Amino acid sequence: MTGGILLKKPKQKKEKETAQVITQLDAVRDVLAKIAKAEGYDRDYSLWIPPIKNPLFLDEIGEARKEQDKDFRLNVIVGMYDDPQNQKQQPVIVDFAAQGHLAVFGTISSGKSTFMQTLAGALIRKYTAKELNLYMIDFSNKALKCFENAPQTGGVVCEDEPDRLKKLFYMLNKKIAERKKQLEGISYSAYIRSKGKNMPAILVLLDNYNGFREKTDDCYEADMIKLAHDGMAYGIFLAITANNMGSNGLPNRLADSIPTTLALVMNDRYQYSEVLRTGRIDITPEEQLKGRGLVKVEDSILEFQTALVENETDEMERMLKIRATCERLKAAWNAPLAVPIPMIPKNPVWSEFEDLEEVRAMSDTTDLLPFAYDEKSAEIYGVDLRRTFCYLVSGKARTGKKNMLKILGSSAGMLHARRVIIEHTGNEFMQYAKSIGAEYLHTQQEQAQFFRDLLPTFAERNRVKNRMKEEGEEESTIYQQMKKYETIFVFIADLHEFMESVYQPEQDVIKIGPFVENVMEKGSLHNIYFIAAVDTKDISSMRGSRAYEAMTSYHTGIQLGGNAMEAAYFDFSHLTYTEQNKGYKAGIGMIPRDNDESGVEKVIIPQYRKRDV
């Protein structure tokens, strides 16, 4: 038979056949099975594909391919969805770059924390700390704590850390302001495409928004709405879990700015419909399977299964494996880590403070004298030398004035400046001055000689300053010009004693009053700085002296120990009467409003210990 296969009819056996009869169909099937096996064809042609596995491990699915182009990408696989109508099962991909913020809803024990583990774990496998910084807020079962040592993690904040939470939101709001200025109107993705991946995306993971609202009295709702509304434009994204939507769950005002949602097991079909923003729900996930949920794929609502980030079903063992992965990634990472949440040490000391990268960077500008932590943000704060000449360290006795002078003196050493310490009574600063290489003036004769020697230096700089002013130069230009001269800091241990020595010198000590008055009145923008400790009980006895009035007229300095009302030379008018009269413990300083433009109000000053010498 042309073009066909001729099957010969087998000869009839005489004896009675006892074997099973093989049909043509059986023979063809057996031949095809042998060929398929030999050629490696193993496709399952069952009418229905099997249900999605539970448990399902991320390694069984694989990772979303990491693109190597210049575009901004931020996507990972977190599970598998089942599409029975099209007979396929495909990975569930969370794509922040394309889809924006994410909200995951589900009842208690539905697998929300496990989902967040998978999301974070998949992200740290795929993206480096240069590309992504993670900040986690865990108000659930602390399942995210195991990520705290990953190089991409800037911090994990739990419900028992209110101050750290406050610092995180301050930092995030500042990041929005900084990036808004840096991006100059273009989108984050356009910036990455143009400038390269030198500005990491930021993802804030918040597990259990219901608990977060309750434990914080909802005080961060405005911050969350701002992050949701403005964040995506600046590369800042949110991933939030909640039990439901509405007044008892994720606020509608916040949910409106979150475009992507997933639903784990919910209480009823209406809740699925609400959180997935769709109409009729024809299916519900299997409730007894943890991590099962519904996802919207194009126009279809499909069932999905959350994958586990490590090949371990036991929660404790899985967290240990995640920790080990984070440690391994950190050990292999030789570039800068994610920016940490700023925090003030419980007992801050100078030896640790001066080694901070931010302190070194501030000193390198040579325009700032770092000395404290901003109480609100935990960022480093310093004296702005561009706006400073006479700086008063003010406060009652035992409020930390001497410690403050030592901190500023050591900080000035980072600027390689000449340092002169004047102390007439006691010898508190004698050994300190020797240890840091500063000049120590103890007698009035030594003080008078210093000011006589300063006269030609001051005169030369004053001539340059006056000439530039006559030429119409701005103060900023004069300041920069003066930096070519040696920087000089004069530290006065007790302003009251200094004033007495100036106006009532000992016998045979040359009178330096007129020159000191001239310096204090005209000495700004000379690259010479006077920093003096003032005990507020001595203010009345110094009033009226020309040098004192000149020094206090600049209104720059710090009030230690509170009681700001006593320091009339500072402007604390932005504080209420109660706040101005409030006392603080030693080492806490209040910053006058016109010191600089930083907006810092209160700082924490590290302790200078003897072993720091």
Number of helices: 22
Beta-strand percent range:
15-25%
Distance, first to last CA: 106 Å
Trace the largest sheet across and list its strands: 2-1-10-9-8-3-7-6-4-5
Strand element count: 20
If you average the pLDDT, what whole number results? Answer: 92
Contiguous low-pLDDT stretches (5 residues minimum) are 1-10, 13-18
Sheet having the most strands: 10 strands, mixed
Structural class: alpha/beta
- Give helix % range: 25-40%
Overall form: elongated
Radius of gyration (CA) equals 36 Å
Name a few traits of the molecule.
ten-stranded mixed beta sheet, disordered N terminus, alpha/beta, single chain, 20 strands
Task: Describe the structure in your own words.
The chain has 22 helices and 20 strands. It is elongated, with a radius of gyration of 36 Å. The strands form two sheets. A ten-stranded mixed beta sheet has the order 2-1-10-9-8-3-7-6-4-5. With 613 residues, the chain is of the alpha/beta class. The relative contact order is 0.09. The longest helix has 27 residues, at 444-470. Strand 9 and strand 10 (300-306) form a beta hairpin. The model is unreliable at 1-10 and 13-18 (pLDDT under 50).
